[in-house]
Amino acid sequence: MATVEKVKSAYDILVEASEAAEAAVRACRPTPMVVGTPTTFLGNEIDESKPTYFIEGGVCGFASVVIKPARGKFVAELKKRGMGFVGYYGGYSVSSWEFAPSIRRDQSYERACAAAAGAAKVLQSYGINAYVDSRID
Q1: Residue 122 pLDDT > 90, yes or no?
Q2: Which of 18, 48, 64, 132 is the most buried (most CB within 10 A)?
């Protein structure tokens, strides 16, 4: 007798996507950067006599998961929980930190992208049309 796998609820998919996003954040190793004053106008060399700052998280930015079309049981679950918003270019947009709360106060572009990619991969595995949208600040 063949076993029938139980279909996951929208909430269960959300939990799985959040767990994948947090796992992706833990596995992410951003490339750090040093910020300082250039020695010449628009130069690439840092003036060592002036303050410099080590940014462990690398480049600043943000990412989100866009779900198109913006309808269905999963989007209804997100709306019920106050997550996301209707995207400017259509679809439903959910910030990476809503899937991975550990990065809520983090400005790392690489961590945000990792979280969004982890969540989007899970959503895609359930047939939800989702992709990552990101920008560097």
Answers
A1: yes
A2: 64
